[in-house]
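call fold(seq) -> C-alpha coordinates
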Amino acid sequence: MNKECSGISRERYELDLNTVCKELRIFFDEKMKNCPELRILNENFPELSYECVIELMAESYLKQNKRLLFHVQSLIEITEKLHLEQYLSEHELQQLYLGILYHDSAKILSTCKFDNQARAELISYLLDDQYGHSLAIQRLFLYLGLPELSRVMRHNDQDFLTDRIQHRLFLVQLMLNLVDRLDNSGNQVNLQEKMSQVKNRIGKIEGFDEQAMELAYQELSKIFSFLSQGKIDFIRNYLEEFGRQANQPLEISVVGRMDGKYHPPTGNYADTSSALHIAEAMSKMGWKTTIWHGGNFPRECHRNGMIEIIPANQDSIKNGELYSNNPDIILVEGLTSIMPFFREERGKKHKAFLALIFRAFSGGKLSEQRLHNAAQADEIWGVSNAVTKILNQQFESMAQNPPTTRVITNGVDHEIFKPNESLPRTKGKIVYVGALKSEKGLNLLIDAFKIVRQIIPFAELHLIGSGEMYGSTTEQTNEDGIILHGQLSHSIVADHLRTAMVTVLLSDPKLFETFGKAIEEAKACGSPVIVSNSGGLPERITSPEVGTIITELTPEEVARVLIQWLEKDPKDITYQPNLICDWRIAAIDIITAYFQHSRINNYN
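ret:
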Protein backbone atom coordinates (compact mmCIF):
# COMPACT_ATOMS: atom_id res chain seq x y z
CA MET A 1 0.00 0.00 0.00
CA ASN A 2 1.32 3.48 -0.77
CA LYS A 3 3.07 5.58 1.87
CA GLU A 4 0.14 7.96 2.37
CA CYS A 5 -2.07 5.05 3.34
CA SER A 6 0.45 3.23 5.54
CA GLY A 7 -0.22 3.52 9.25
CA ILE A 8 -3.78 4.86 9.02
CA SER A 9 -5.85 3.35 11.83
CA ARG A 10 -8.67 0.94 11.22
CA GLU A 11 -11.07 3.35 12.96
CA ARG A 12 -10.59 5.89 10.19
CA TYR A 13 -11.41 3.25 7.61
CA GLU A 14 -14.60 2.41 9.45
CA LEU A 15 -15.58 6.05 9.04
CA ASP A 16 -14.52 6.17 5.41
CA LEU A 17 -14.88 2.88 3.50
CA ASN A 18 -14.33 4.73 0.26
CA THR A 19 -10.77 5.51 1.34
CA VAL A 20 -9.73 1.94 2.01
CA CYS A 21 -11.44 0.70 -1.17
CA LYS A 22 -9.70 3.34 -3.26
CA GLU A 23 -6.29 2.69 -1.69
CA LEU A 24 -6.59 -1.08 -2.09
CA ARG A 25 -7.50 -0.68 -5.77
CA ILE A 26 -4.50 1.61 -6.29
CA PHE A 27 -2.27 -0.89 -4.52
CA PHE A 28 -3.39 -3.87 -6.61
CA ASP A 29 -3.32 -1.82 -9.83
CA GLU A 30 0.33 -1.08 -9.13
CA LYS A 31 1.50 -4.39 -7.72
CA MET A 32 -0.38 -6.86 -9.93
CA LYS A 33 0.69 -5.66 -13.37
CA ASN A 34 1.39 -8.63 -15.66
CA CYS A 35 0.42 -11.13 -12.94
CA PRO A 36 -0.32 -14.37 -14.87
CA GLU A 37 -2.66 -15.79 -12.22
CA LEU A 38 -4.73 -12.62 -12.15
CA ARG A 39 -4.96 -12.58 -15.95
CA ILE A 40 -6.28 -16.17 -15.98
CA LEU A 41 -8.79 -15.35 -13.24
CA ASN A 42 -10.06 -12.28 -15.10
CA GLU A 43 -10.35 -14.16 -18.39
CA ASN A 44 -12.43 -16.93 -16.86
CA PHE A 45 -14.36 -15.13 -14.11
CA PRO A 46 -14.21 -11.34 -14.45
CA GLU A 47 -16.88 -11.22 -11.74
CA LEU A 48 -14.21 -12.39 -9.28
CA SER A 49 -11.63 -9.74 -10.13
CA TYR A 50 -9.91 -7.91 -7.28
CA GLU A 51 -12.02 -4.81 -7.98
CA CYS A 52 -15.18 -6.86 -7.50
CA VAL A 53 -13.78 -8.62 -4.41
CA ILE A 54 -12.95 -5.29 -2.77
CA GLU A 55 -16.47 -4.08 -3.49
CA LEU A 56 -17.99 -7.27 -2.10
CA MET A 57 -15.92 -6.95 1.06
CA ALA A 58 -17.12 -3.38 1.53
CA GLU A 59 -20.74 -4.48 1.09
CA SER A 60 -20.16 -7.32 3.55
CA TYR A 61 -18.89 -4.88 6.15
CA LEU A 62 -21.86 -2.54 5.74
CA LYS A 63 -24.43 -5.34 5.84
CA GLN A 64 -22.91 -7.81 8.31
CA ASN A 65 -20.03 -5.97 9.97
CA LYS A 66 -17.62 -8.46 8.38
CA ARG A 67 -14.14 -6.94 8.66
CA LEU A 68 -12.52 -8.78 5.74
CA LEU A 69 -11.57 -5.51 4.06
CA PHE A 70 -9.67 -4.32 7.12
CA HIS A 71 -8.09 -7.74 7.53
CA VAL A 72 -6.73 -7.50 3.96
CA GLN A 73 -5.49 -3.95 4.55
CA SER A 74 -3.79 -4.98 7.80
CA LEU A 75 -2.04 -7.99 6.25
CA ILE A 76 -0.69 -5.84 3.43
CA GLU A 77 0.68 -3.38 6.00
CA ILE A 78 2.31 -6.25 7.92
CA THR A 79 3.81 -7.62 4.70
CA GLU A 80 5.29 -4.26 3.78
CA LYS A 81 6.69 -3.67 7.28
CA LEU A 82 8.53 -6.99 7.01
CA HIS A 83 10.13 -5.78 3.73
CA LEU A 84 9.46 -9.12 2.08
CA GLU A 85 10.31 -7.61 -1.30
CA GLN A 86 13.95 -8.05 -0.30
CA TYR A 87 13.54 -11.81 -0.11
CA LEU A 88 10.70 -12.76 -2.49
CA SER A 89 10.68 -12.48 -6.26
CA GLU A 90 8.12 -10.20 -7.92
CA HIS A 91 6.00 -13.20 -8.86
CA GLU A 92 6.18 -14.65 -5.36
CA LEU A 93 5.04 -11.31 -3.96
CA GLN A 94 2.14 -11.25 -6.41
CA GLN A 95 1.12 -14.71 -5.26
CA LEU A 96 1.31 -13.55 -1.65
CA TYR A 97 -0.87 -10.50 -2.36
CA LEU A 98 -3.42 -12.69 -4.16
CA GLY A 99 -3.35 -15.02 -1.16
CA ILE A 100 -3.97 -12.10 1.19
CA LEU A 101 -6.92 -10.86 -0.88
CA TYR A 102 -8.63 -14.18 -1.63
CA HIS A 103 -7.75 -16.45 1.32
CA ASP A 104 -10.86 -15.60 3.37
CA SER A 105 -13.13 -14.58 0.50
CA ALA A 106 -14.77 -17.89 -0.51
CA LYS A 107 -18.06 -17.19 1.25
CA ILE A 108 -18.58 -13.73 -0.25
CA LEU A 109 -17.42 -14.87 -3.71
CA SER A 110 -20.12 -17.53 -3.70
CA THR A 111 -22.68 -14.70 -3.54
CA CYS A 112 -21.44 -13.05 -6.76
CA LYS A 113 -24.09 -12.17 -9.32
CA PHE A 114 -23.67 -13.92 -12.67
CA ASP A 115 -25.72 -13.28 -15.79
CA ASN A 116 -25.12 -16.90 -16.79
CA GLN A 117 -26.92 -19.37 -14.52
CA ALA A 118 -24.57 -22.23 -15.37
CA ARG A 119 -21.54 -20.20 -14.28
CA ALA A 120 -23.30 -19.17 -11.08
CA GLU A 121 -24.01 -22.82 -10.26
CA LEU A 122 -20.38 -23.71 -11.00
CA ILE A 123 -18.97 -21.08 -8.63
CA SER A 124 -21.48 -22.06 -5.94
CA TYR A 125 -20.39 -25.69 -6.28
CA LEU A 126 -16.68 -24.90 -6.12
CA LEU A 127 -17.02 -22.58 -3.13
CA ASP A 128 -19.56 -24.60 -1.15
CA ASP A 129 -19.62 -23.79 2.60
CA GLN A 130 -19.11 -27.44 3.53
CA TYR A 131 -15.43 -27.21 2.61
CA GLY A 132 -14.58 -24.18 4.72
CA HIS A 133 -13.10 -21.04 3.20
CA SER A 134 -9.55 -22.36 2.79
CA LEU A 135 -10.34 -25.54 0.89
CA ALA A 136 -13.11 -23.84 -1.09
CA ILE A 137 -10.78 -21.16 -2.45
CA GLN A 138 -8.24 -23.88 -3.28
CA ARG A 139 -10.91 -25.54 -5.40
CA LEU A 140 -11.46 -22.33 -7.37
CA PHE A 141 -7.80 -21.99 -8.30
CA LEU A 142 -7.51 -25.69 -9.12
CA TYR A 143 -10.39 -25.24 -11.58
CA LEU A 144 -8.47 -22.39 -13.20
CA GLY A 145 -5.43 -24.64 -13.61
CA LEU A 146 -3.36 -22.74 -11.02
CA PRO A 147 -2.16 -25.54 -8.70
CA GLU A 148 0.72 -23.52 -7.26
CA LEU A 149 -1.56 -20.70 -6.17
CA SER A 150 -4.04 -23.26 -4.88
CA ARG A 151 -1.30 -24.70 -2.65
CA VAL A 152 -0.46 -21.19 -1.38
CA MET A 153 -4.05 -21.00 -0.14
CA ARG A 154 -3.42 -23.95 2.19
CA HIS A 155 -2.74 -21.54 5.03
CA ASN A 156 -5.12 -22.63 7.76
CA ASP A 157 -3.85 -24.51 10.79
CA GLN A 158 -4.70 -28.08 9.78
CA ASP A 159 -3.65 -27.81 6.13
CA PHE A 160 -0.49 -25.91 6.97
CA LEU A 161 0.69 -28.42 9.57
CA THR A 162 -0.26 -31.33 7.31
CA ASP A 163 1.97 -29.94 4.56
CA ARG A 164 4.73 -29.29 7.08
CA ILE A 165 4.68 -32.88 8.30
CA GLN A 166 4.62 -34.13 4.69
CA HIS A 167 7.55 -31.82 3.80
CA ARG A 168 5.46 -30.03 1.20
CA LEU A 169 5.46 -26.42 2.36
CA PHE A 170 6.05 -23.67 -0.18
CA LEU A 171 7.70 -20.39 0.71
CA VAL A 172 4.73 -18.18 -0.23
CA GLN A 173 2.38 -20.56 1.56
CA LEU A 174 4.51 -20.18 4.67
CA MET A 175 4.50 -16.38 4.37
CA LEU A 176 0.70 -16.26 4.05
CA ASN A 177 0.33 -18.41 7.14
CA LEU A 178 2.75 -16.25 9.10
CA VAL A 179 1.27 -12.85 8.27
CA ASP A 180 -2.25 -14.23 8.79
CA ARG A 181 -1.24 -15.38 12.28
CA LEU A 182 -0.09 -11.84 13.05
CA ASP A 183 -3.55 -10.39 12.48
CA ASN A 184 -7.15 -11.07 13.39
CA SER A 185 -9.78 -9.26 11.28
CA GLY A 186 -7.75 -6.06 11.22
CA ASN A 187 -6.47 -6.28 14.79
CA GLN A 188 -2.81 -7.10 15.17
CA VAL A 189 -2.40 -9.55 18.04
CA ASN A 190 0.32 -10.92 20.29
CA LEU A 191 2.16 -13.64 18.41
CA GLN A 192 2.61 -16.12 21.25
CA GLU A 193 -0.99 -15.71 22.34
CA LYS A 194 -2.18 -16.44 18.82
CA MET A 195 0.05 -19.49 18.50
CA SER A 196 -1.22 -20.79 21.82
CA GLN A 197 -4.77 -20.57 20.46
CA VAL A 198 -3.70 -22.44 17.34
CA LYS A 199 -2.04 -25.16 19.42
CA ASN A 200 -5.09 -25.69 21.61
CA ARG A 201 -7.44 -25.87 18.63
CA ILE A 202 -5.29 -28.26 16.60
CA GLY A 203 -4.73 -30.48 19.63
CA LYS A 204 -8.45 -31.26 19.76
CA ILE A 205 -8.53 -32.82 16.29
CA GLU A 206 -9.37 -36.50 16.43
CA GLY A 207 -6.48 -38.61 15.19
CA PHE A 208 -3.96 -35.79 15.53
CA ASP A 209 -0.68 -37.05 16.91
CA GLU A 210 0.28 -34.82 19.86
CA GLN A 211 4.02 -35.39 19.48
CA ALA A 212 3.96 -34.47 15.78
CA MET A 213 1.86 -31.42 16.56
CA GLU A 214 4.24 -30.29 19.29
CA LEU A 215 7.19 -30.62 16.90
CA ALA A 216 5.40 -28.60 14.22
CA TYR A 217 4.42 -25.98 16.81
CA GLN A 218 7.99 -25.62 17.99
CA GLU A 219 9.21 -25.20 14.43
CA LEU A 220 6.54 -22.61 13.67
CA SER A 221 7.45 -20.71 16.82
CA LYS A 222 11.08 -20.72 15.71
CA ILE A 223 10.07 -19.37 12.30
CA PHE A 224 7.94 -16.66 13.92
CA SER A 225 10.86 -15.66 16.08
CA PHE A 226 13.19 -15.22 13.13
CA LEU A 227 10.46 -13.47 11.15
CA SER A 228 10.01 -10.91 13.91
CA GLN A 229 13.75 -10.25 13.63
CA GLY A 230 13.49 -9.86 9.87
CA LYS A 231 15.63 -12.93 9.18
CA ILE A 232 13.77 -14.10 6.08
CA ASP A 233 16.96 -15.62 4.65
CA PHE A 234 16.95 -18.06 7.54
CA ILE A 235 13.39 -19.04 6.78
CA ARG A 236 14.24 -19.69 3.13
CA ASN A 237 17.22 -21.84 4.15
CA TYR A 238 15.09 -23.54 6.78
CA LEU A 239 12.51 -24.45 4.16
CA GLU A 240 15.20 -25.86 1.91
CA GLU A 241 16.34 -28.14 4.74
CA PHE A 242 13.02 -29.80 5.49
CA GLY A 243 11.11 -29.00 2.32
CA ARG A 244 13.16 -30.55 -0.42
CA GLN A 245 10.07 -32.49 -1.47
CA ALA A 246 7.94 -29.35 -1.62
CA ASN A 247 8.23 -29.11 -5.38
CA GLN A 248 7.59 -32.81 -5.92
CA PRO A 249 4.14 -33.34 -7.45
CA LEU A 250 1.48 -35.13 -5.52
CA GLU A 251 0.78 -38.50 -7.10
CA ILE A 252 -2.25 -40.66 -7.75
CA SER A 253 -2.28 -44.25 -9.00
CA VAL A 254 -5.45 -45.29 -10.81
CA VAL A 255 -6.12 -49.04 -10.96
CA GLY A 256 -8.72 -50.39 -13.34
CA ARG A 257 -9.50 -51.36 -16.91
CA MET A 258 -9.07 -48.82 -19.67
CA ASP A 259 -12.02 -49.10 -22.03
CA GLY A 260 -10.68 -46.71 -24.66
CA LYS A 261 -9.73 -47.63 -28.20
CA TYR A 262 -6.17 -47.11 -29.41
CA HIS A 263 -5.73 -46.84 -33.18
CA PRO A 264 -2.20 -47.41 -34.45
CA PRO A 265 -0.27 -46.08 -36.24
CA THR A 266 -1.82 -42.63 -35.80
CA GLY A 267 -1.79 -42.83 -32.02
CA ASN A 268 -5.27 -41.36 -31.79
CA TYR A 269 -7.61 -42.28 -28.98
CA ALA A 270 -11.33 -42.83 -29.35
CA ASP A 271 -13.84 -43.40 -26.55
CA THR A 272 -11.04 -42.92 -24.01
CA SER A 273 -11.47 -44.28 -20.53
CA SER A 274 -12.42 -42.37 -17.42
CA ALA A 275 -8.95 -43.13 -16.01
CA LEU A 276 -7.28 -41.18 -18.81
CA HIS A 277 -9.74 -38.29 -18.48
CA ILE A 278 -8.99 -38.10 -14.75
CA ALA A 279 -5.24 -38.36 -15.39
CA GLU A 280 -5.31 -35.50 -17.88
CA ALA A 281 -7.38 -33.29 -15.57
CA MET A 282 -5.18 -33.99 -12.55
CA SER A 283 -1.97 -33.37 -14.49
CA LYS A 284 -3.20 -29.85 -15.19
CA MET A 285 -3.61 -29.46 -11.43
CA GLY A 286 -0.03 -30.42 -10.69
CA TRP A 287 -0.59 -34.11 -9.95
CA LYS A 288 1.40 -36.96 -11.43
CA THR A 289 -0.72 -39.95 -12.46
CA THR A 290 0.09 -43.57 -13.11
CA ILE A 291 -2.64 -45.71 -14.66
CA TRP A 292 -2.33 -49.44 -13.92
CA HIS A 293 -4.80 -51.09 -16.24
CA GLY A 294 -5.96 -54.28 -17.82
CA GLY A 295 -6.21 -54.00 -21.59
CA ASN A 296 -4.03 -53.61 -24.64
CA PHE A 297 -2.87 -50.01 -24.36
CA PRO A 298 0.91 -50.01 -24.90
CA ARG A 299 3.06 -48.71 -22.04
CA GLU A 300 4.47 -45.79 -24.03
CA CYS A 301 1.06 -44.28 -24.82
CA HIS A 302 1.10 -41.41 -22.39
CA ARG A 303 0.20 -37.80 -23.07
CA ASN A 304 3.00 -36.08 -21.16
CA GLY A 305 5.53 -36.58 -18.39
CA MET A 306 2.81 -36.28 -15.72
CA ILE A 307 0.95 -39.38 -16.98
CA GLU A 308 2.24 -42.92 -17.32
CA ILE A 309 0.12 -45.83 -18.54
CA ILE A 310 1.25 -49.29 -17.43
CA PRO A 311 -0.45 -52.55 -18.48
CA ALA A 312 -1.05 -54.63 -15.37
CA ASN A 313 -3.02 -57.44 -13.76
CA GLN A 314 -3.66 -58.38 -10.16
CA ASP A 315 -0.45 -60.43 -9.91
CA SER A 316 1.78 -57.65 -11.23
CA ILE A 317 0.12 -55.14 -8.90
CA LYS A 318 0.65 -57.42 -5.91
CA ASN A 319 4.37 -57.70 -6.56
CA GLY A 320 4.75 -54.31 -4.93
CA GLU A 321 5.73 -52.23 -7.96
CA LEU A 322 2.72 -49.95 -7.57
CA TYR A 323 3.88 -48.87 -4.13
CA SER A 324 7.42 -48.11 -5.29
CA ASN A 325 6.50 -44.47 -5.91
CA ASN A 326 4.57 -44.27 -2.63
CA PRO A 327 1.51 -42.59 -4.20
CA ASP A 328 -0.63 -40.19 -2.18
CA ILE A 329 -3.87 -41.69 -3.53
CA ILE A 330 -4.65 -45.15 -4.83
CA LEU A 331 -7.92 -44.99 -6.75
CA VAL A 332 -9.37 -48.37 -7.68
CA GLU A 333 -12.11 -48.42 -10.29
CA GLY A 334 -14.51 -51.14 -9.20
CA LEU A 335 -11.91 -53.90 -8.72
CA THR A 336 -12.88 -54.86 -5.17
CA SER A 337 -10.78 -58.05 -4.99
CA ILE A 338 -7.56 -56.03 -4.79
CA MET A 339 -8.67 -53.88 -1.83
CA PRO A 340 -7.64 -56.27 1.03
CA PHE A 341 -4.10 -56.36 -0.42
CA PHE A 342 -3.91 -52.56 -0.50
CA ARG A 343 -5.21 -52.33 3.06
CA GLU A 344 -2.58 -54.82 4.25
CA GLU A 345 0.23 -53.01 2.43
CA ARG A 346 -0.90 -49.64 3.75
CA GLY A 347 -0.77 -51.04 7.26
CA LYS A 348 2.96 -51.78 6.89
CA LYS A 349 4.52 -48.42 6.07
CA HIS A 350 2.64 -46.62 3.36
CA LYS A 351 0.30 -43.66 3.79
CA ALA A 352 -1.74 -43.84 0.59
CA PHE A 353 -5.37 -42.75 0.73
CA LEU A 354 -7.35 -45.77 -0.51
CA ALA A 355 -10.42 -44.90 -2.56
CA LEU A 356 -12.74 -47.19 -4.49
CA ILE A 357 -15.01 -45.77 -7.19
CA PHE A 358 -17.94 -47.51 -8.83
CA ARG A 359 -18.64 -46.38 -12.39
CA ALA A 360 -20.32 -49.65 -13.42
CA PHE A 361 -22.73 -51.35 -11.06
CA SER A 362 -24.53 -54.13 -12.89
CA GLY A 363 -27.84 -55.06 -11.33
CA GLY A 364 -27.52 -52.50 -8.54
CA LYS A 365 -26.15 -54.93 -5.97
CA LEU A 366 -22.78 -56.18 -4.74
CA SER A 367 -22.16 -59.75 -3.66
CA GLU A 368 -21.35 -60.29 0.01
CA GLN A 369 -17.67 -60.90 -0.83
CA ARG A 370 -17.37 -57.77 -2.99
CA LEU A 371 -19.07 -55.76 -0.27
CA HIS A 372 -16.60 -57.06 2.33
CA ASN A 373 -13.65 -56.26 0.07
CA ALA A 374 -15.01 -52.80 -0.73
CA ALA A 375 -15.21 -52.02 2.98
CA GLN A 376 -11.39 -52.07 3.10
CA ALA A 377 -11.29 -48.69 1.35
CA ASP A 378 -10.94 -45.43 3.26
CA GLU A 379 -13.72 -43.99 1.11
CA ILE A 380 -16.09 -45.37 -1.51
CA TRP A 381 -17.25 -43.11 -4.30
CA GLY A 382 -20.19 -43.51 -6.61
CA VAL A 383 -20.82 -41.61 -9.82
CA SER A 384 -24.38 -40.80 -8.77
CA ASN A 385 -26.51 -40.48 -5.65
CA ALA A 386 -28.28 -43.68 -6.67
CA VAL A 387 -25.01 -45.61 -6.45
CA THR A 388 -24.02 -44.30 -3.01
CA LYS A 389 -27.57 -44.87 -1.73
CA ILE A 390 -27.48 -48.52 -2.77
CA LEU A 391 -24.04 -48.98 -1.23
CA ASN A 392 -25.04 -47.40 2.07
CA GLN A 393 -28.14 -49.58 2.24
CA GLN A 394 -26.01 -52.69 1.74
CA PHE A 395 -23.39 -51.56 4.26
CA GLU A 396 -26.10 -51.11 6.89
CA SER A 397 -26.43 -54.89 6.98
CA MET A 398 -22.75 -55.34 7.83
CA ALA A 399 -21.51 -55.54 11.40
CA GLN A 400 -18.43 -53.38 10.80
CA ASN A 401 -18.49 -49.63 10.37
CA PRO A 402 -18.83 -48.75 6.67
CA PRO A 403 -16.35 -46.48 4.89
CA THR A 404 -17.29 -42.90 4.07
CA THR A 405 -19.19 -42.63 0.80
CA ARG A 406 -19.44 -39.61 -1.47
CA VAL A 407 -20.54 -38.78 -5.01
CA ILE A 408 -17.87 -38.02 -7.60
CA THR A 409 -19.53 -37.98 -10.98
CA ASN A 410 -18.16 -38.74 -14.39
CA GLY A 411 -17.29 -35.76 -16.54
CA VAL A 412 -17.84 -34.32 -19.98
CA ASP A 413 -15.20 -32.84 -22.24
CA HIS A 414 -16.74 -29.40 -22.73
CA GLU A 415 -14.16 -28.53 -25.39
CA ILE A 416 -15.82 -31.12 -27.64
CA PHE A 417 -19.37 -31.40 -26.33
CA LYS A 418 -20.76 -27.87 -26.47
CA PRO A 419 -23.54 -26.04 -28.33
CA ASN A 420 -22.90 -24.73 -31.83
CA GLU A 421 -25.46 -22.22 -33.11
CA SER A 422 -24.18 -22.61 -36.67
CA LEU A 423 -25.57 -26.16 -36.73
CA PRO A 424 -29.41 -25.96 -36.76
CA ARG A 425 -31.49 -28.74 -35.26
CA THR A 426 -32.92 -31.25 -37.73
CA LYS A 427 -36.70 -31.57 -37.47
CA GLY A 428 -37.70 -35.09 -36.49
CA LYS A 429 -34.17 -36.22 -35.52
CA ILE A 430 -33.85 -38.66 -32.60
CA VAL A 431 -30.40 -39.81 -31.46
CA TYR A 432 -29.29 -42.79 -29.39
CA VAL A 433 -25.61 -43.19 -28.37
CA GLY A 434 -24.42 -46.36 -26.65
CA ALA A 435 -24.21 -50.13 -26.86
CA LEU A 436 -26.75 -51.62 -29.26
CA LYS A 437 -28.24 -54.03 -26.73
CA SER A 438 -31.79 -54.87 -25.71
CA GLU A 439 -31.14 -54.09 -22.01
CA LYS A 440 -30.36 -50.53 -23.07
CA GLY A 441 -34.01 -50.25 -24.11
CA LEU A 442 -33.27 -50.35 -27.83
CA ASN A 443 -36.13 -52.72 -28.74
CA LEU A 444 -38.51 -50.48 -26.80
CA LEU A 445 -37.17 -47.38 -28.56
CA ILE A 446 -37.54 -48.95 -32.02
CA ASP A 447 -41.12 -50.07 -31.29
CA ALA A 448 -41.96 -46.57 -30.06
CA PHE A 449 -40.30 -45.03 -33.12
CA LYS A 450 -42.55 -47.05 -35.42
CA ILE A 451 -45.54 -45.39 -33.74
CA VAL A 452 -43.88 -41.98 -34.06
CA ARG A 453 -43.43 -42.49 -37.83
CA GLN A 454 -47.15 -42.87 -38.20
CA ILE A 455 -47.60 -39.33 -36.84
CA ILE A 456 -44.33 -37.75 -38.07
CA PRO A 457 -43.39 -39.64 -41.27
CA PHE A 458 -40.12 -37.72 -41.78
CA ALA A 459 -38.77 -38.64 -38.32
CA GLU A 460 -35.38 -40.38 -38.20
CA LEU A 461 -33.79 -42.52 -35.51
CA HIS A 462 -29.96 -42.33 -35.51
CA LEU A 463 -28.25 -45.20 -33.68
CA ILE A 464 -24.60 -44.55 -32.82
CA GLY A 465 -22.56 -47.45 -31.43
CA SER A 466 -22.14 -51.17 -31.90
CA GLY A 467 -23.41 -54.28 -30.20
CA GLU A 468 -25.23 -57.56 -30.47
CA MET A 469 -28.34 -56.15 -32.18
CA TYR A 470 -26.63 -54.69 -35.25
CA GLY A 471 -22.97 -55.56 -34.93
CA SER A 472 -20.72 -53.11 -36.78
CA THR A 473 -23.15 -52.42 -39.66
CA THR A 474 -23.08 -48.71 -40.51
CA GLU A 475 -24.78 -46.11 -42.68
CA GLN A 476 -27.78 -48.25 -43.58
CA THR A 477 -31.24 -46.72 -43.82
CA ASN A 478 -34.38 -48.76 -44.26
CA GLU A 479 -37.96 -47.74 -44.90
CA ASP A 480 -38.51 -47.28 -41.17
CA GLY A 481 -36.15 -44.29 -41.03
CA ILE A 482 -33.52 -45.99 -38.84
CA ILE A 483 -29.92 -44.95 -39.60
CA LEU A 484 -27.03 -47.01 -38.23
CA HIS A 485 -23.75 -45.17 -37.76
CA GLY A 486 -21.55 -47.61 -35.86
CA GLN A 487 -18.70 -46.20 -33.74
CA LEU A 488 -17.97 -42.54 -34.42
CA SER A 489 -15.36 -40.08 -33.17
CA HIS A 490 -16.37 -37.78 -30.33
CA SER A 491 -16.44 -34.73 -32.60
CA ILE A 492 -18.88 -36.38 -35.04
CA VAL A 493 -21.03 -37.65 -32.16
CA ALA A 494 -21.15 -34.08 -30.83
CA ASP A 495 -22.41 -32.81 -34.21
CA HIS A 496 -25.23 -35.37 -34.13
CA LEU A 497 -26.18 -34.34 -30.59
CA ARG A 498 -26.17 -30.63 -31.49
CA THR A 499 -28.58 -31.22 -34.39
CA ALA A 500 -30.89 -33.61 -32.51
CA MET A 501 -34.37 -32.66 -31.42
CA VAL A 502 -34.01 -35.18 -28.59
CA THR A 503 -31.54 -37.82 -27.32
CA VAL A 504 -32.85 -41.01 -25.71
CA LEU A 505 -31.62 -43.66 -23.24
CA LEU A 506 -34.29 -46.09 -21.96
CA SER A 507 -32.23 -48.67 -20.07
CA ASP A 508 -34.07 -51.38 -18.21
CA PRO A 509 -34.25 -50.43 -14.49
CA LYS A 510 -32.92 -53.91 -13.67
CA LEU A 511 -29.70 -52.97 -15.49
CA PHE A 512 -29.20 -50.06 -13.06
CA GLU A 513 -27.49 -47.36 -15.11
CA THR A 514 -25.02 -45.75 -12.73
CA PHE A 515 -24.66 -42.41 -14.52
CA GLY A 516 -25.53 -42.05 -18.21
CA LYS A 517 -22.47 -40.38 -19.71
CA ALA A 518 -24.01 -40.10 -23.18
CA ILE A 519 -26.96 -38.23 -21.69
CA GLU A 520 -24.68 -35.64 -20.07
CA GLU A 521 -22.80 -35.25 -23.36
CA ALA A 522 -26.11 -34.64 -25.11
CA LYS A 523 -27.07 -32.01 -22.53
CA ALA A 524 -23.70 -30.34 -22.96
CA CYS A 525 -24.49 -30.01 -26.69
CA GLY A 526 -27.89 -28.50 -25.91
CA SER A 527 -29.97 -31.55 -26.78
CA PRO A 528 -33.06 -32.35 -24.68
CA VAL A 529 -32.99 -35.89 -23.27
CA ILE A 530 -35.46 -38.65 -22.49
CA VAL A 531 -34.44 -41.28 -19.92
CA SER A 532 -35.90 -44.22 -18.06
CA ASN A 533 -36.09 -44.52 -14.29
CA SER A 534 -32.91 -46.61 -14.11
CA GLY A 535 -30.27 -46.02 -11.44
CA GLY A 536 -28.69 -42.58 -11.77
CA LEU A 537 -30.45 -41.57 -15.01
CA PRO A 538 -33.25 -39.56 -13.32
CA GLU A 539 -30.57 -37.43 -11.63
CA ARG A 540 -29.53 -36.16 -15.05
CA ILE A 541 -32.92 -34.44 -15.47
CA THR A 542 -32.68 -31.31 -13.33
CA SER A 543 -35.64 -29.39 -14.81
CA PRO A 544 -38.46 -29.83 -17.37
CA GLU A 545 -36.39 -27.83 -19.89
CA VAL A 546 -33.67 -30.48 -19.73
CA GLY A 547 -35.85 -33.45 -20.62
CA THR A 548 -38.29 -36.11 -19.45
CA ILE A 549 -38.15 -39.14 -17.16
CA ILE A 550 -40.35 -42.02 -18.36
CA THR A 551 -41.52 -44.42 -15.67
CA GLU A 552 -44.09 -46.31 -17.79
CA LEU A 553 -41.84 -48.11 -20.25
CA THR A 554 -44.32 -48.98 -22.99
CA PRO A 555 -43.99 -48.20 -26.71
CA GLU A 556 -47.11 -46.03 -26.53
CA GLU A 557 -45.86 -43.88 -23.63
CA VAL A 558 -42.38 -43.51 -25.11
CA ALA A 559 -43.88 -42.52 -28.47
CA ARG A 560 -46.13 -39.93 -26.80
CA VAL A 561 -43.16 -38.24 -25.09
CA LEU A 562 -41.04 -38.40 -28.26
CA ILE A 563 -43.78 -36.70 -30.27
CA GLN A 564 -44.06 -33.95 -27.65
CA TRP A 565 -40.41 -33.06 -28.13
CA LEU A 566 -40.36 -33.55 -31.93
CA GLU A 567 -43.29 -31.17 -32.40
CA LYS A 568 -41.52 -28.30 -30.65
CA ASP A 569 -40.07 -25.41 -32.61
CA PRO A 570 -36.27 -25.98 -32.71
CA LYS A 571 -35.79 -22.30 -31.83
CA ASP A 572 -37.64 -22.88 -28.55
CA ILE A 573 -35.21 -25.58 -27.43
CA THR A 574 -32.53 -23.81 -25.40
CA TYR A 575 -30.49 -25.10 -22.51
CA GLN A 576 -27.40 -23.95 -20.65
CA PRO A 577 -24.90 -26.80 -20.23
CA ASN A 578 -24.20 -28.23 -16.79
CA LEU A 579 -20.64 -27.00 -16.22
CA ILE A 580 -20.36 -28.99 -12.99
CA CYS A 581 -20.35 -32.26 -14.94
CA ASP A 582 -16.74 -31.88 -16.04
CA TRP A 583 -13.65 -34.06 -15.69
CA ARG A 584 -11.90 -31.09 -14.06
CA ILE A 585 -14.60 -31.03 -11.39
CA ALA A 586 -14.26 -34.79 -10.87
CA ALA A 587 -10.50 -34.32 -10.39
CA ILE A 588 -11.07 -31.41 -7.98
CA ASP A 589 -13.51 -33.51 -5.96
CA ILE A 590 -10.91 -36.30 -5.76
CA ILE A 591 -8.25 -33.84 -4.58
CA THR A 592 -10.75 -32.36 -2.10
CA ALA A 593 -11.44 -35.82 -0.67
CA TYR A 594 -7.71 -36.40 -0.28
CA PHE A 595 -7.13 -33.07 1.47
CA GLN A 596 -10.06 -33.65 3.83
CA HIS A 597 -8.77 -37.13 4.63
CA SER A 598 -5.18 -35.98 5.14
CA ARG A 599 -6.22 -33.23 7.59
CA ILE A 600 -6.91 -35.94 10.16
CA ASN A 601 -4.94 -38.96 9.04
CA ASN A 602 -1.50 -37.67 8.11
CA TYR A 603 -0.44 -36.28 11.48
CA ASN A 604 0.60 -39.54 13.08
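Residues 210-228 form the longest helix (19 residues).
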